[in-house]
Amino acid sequence: MDRDPSSENKDLRRRLTAVIANARHNEERMRRFHEQELQLLSASGLVDLLRHIVVGHRQVFELQSVTLTLIDAEYEFQRLLAELGCSDCFPEVRFVDSGAGLAAFFGSAQMPRLGEFRADRHAELFHVGPPPASVAVLPLLRQRRLLGSLNLGSQAAGRFIPGSATDFLERLGAVVAIGLENAINHERLKHIGLIDALTGVHNRRYFDRRLTEEVERVQRSGQPLTCLFLDVDHFKKVNDVHGHQVGDRVLQEVAARVKAQLRLSDALGRYGGEEFSALLVQTDLEQATDIAERIRASIAGEPFRLGGAHDLRVTMSVGIAVLLPQDCAGDIAACAERLVALADEAVYRAKQGGRNRVEIAGKTAAGPL
Q: Which has the higher per-residue pLDDT, 20 or 315?
């Protein structure tokens, strides 16, 4: 029996309408993706990039959750975020020491994995917020090297279905991986001019910039900031007796021992010559005194084994000054200058008091002579 031509026309119109609607939907999706892609590739730094990834993707693609797992065996991502004052800015980002677990998750194909949320497989990937209904886990690959995973979660059970085409998701993962690599390289370049070439810690220029940032943070957060001034005792004698090459190696070892006692969120810089300075964020006097004493003991406790006849006993004097919120209501530059001056005066008193000791601005902290 022949179909009614009018019925066929209606059916064709419905199909055409559906095709047009689908085409417009895909066009709109690609437009949003293109805009997001440009945002990722033009991010001004690591913090800006992470914000676009975990916040931008959630908003643009209407997702319940977006998390990021990054392989950070050398703690580079975490160090950079700490130096940028953003250690806790992104709870959606999780760092792992090894990529073995992710590599096993993706298998040899290293392709996006789509499907319903399963706690036994996905709980660690979606570590914040309520579990989604369906998920897409994208490998972040750069030159065949796995950097981590981008984890997308939707409330809709049918949003991510196994067997669906993954071209779009593969491209998204590739763009995020390129963005991460670009951001890391960008931060590395920025920090080259802020690193002391001899000791590998930050230089005076970095310290001064970070000091301003941390004083501003005191005003915003109401948490104290402590400044340590650290001076190697009798360093001129080391150079005069053993030569400048040995002196350089002493400074390198001093920097390594001091750094080992600090947290990722703290800032250590070579202030000049044999002087170092450290900023201990959100640290009160009691905590700072404990850290300073541990630094002093780590220097004096073990000889510096520099090879041959150059095993030396080295000591260090430390000055402490604390900036409290009630003391920095005025000009930021003036507050920063006063904090440094007080720490400098304290280390001078430590020198005058016999060296190898800790002094607190305004009073003495008992330390061994």
A: 315
CA 214 to chain centre: 16
Domains in the chain, please, with CATH? Answer: 5-192 (3.30.450.40), 204-364 (3.30.70.270)
Residue type, 74: E
What would the two tokens of residue 324 be?
């409290």
Residues with Cβ within 8 Å of residue 183, at least 6 apart in sequence: 43, 45, 46, 48, 49
**In contact, 54 and 47? CB cutoff 8 Å:** no
Choice among 92, 274, 293, 359 that is catalytic:
274
Closest by CA to 320, choosing from 294, 301, 340, is 340
The pTM of the full predicted model, rounded to 2 decimals, is: 0.56
- Assign residue 174 a region (left: φ > 0; alpha: ψ between -120 and 50; beta: otherwise): alpha
**102, 129 in Cβ contact below 8 A?**
no
Q: What are phi and psi of 117, to 5 degrees?
A: -70, 130
337 among known catalytic residues: no
C-alpha torsion angle, residues 14, 16, 22, 28 (rounded to 10): -120
Task: Give the single-character DSSP code of 195.
Answer: B
Positive or negative, the Cα torsion across 214, 215, 218, 224?
positive
**Which of the pair, 66 or 84, is modelled with greater confidence?**
66
Decide if pLDDT at 77 tops 60.
yes
Lookup: tokens for 143: 């030159």
State which H helix or E strand residue 341 sits in: helix 332-352
Place of tokens 């369906």: 134
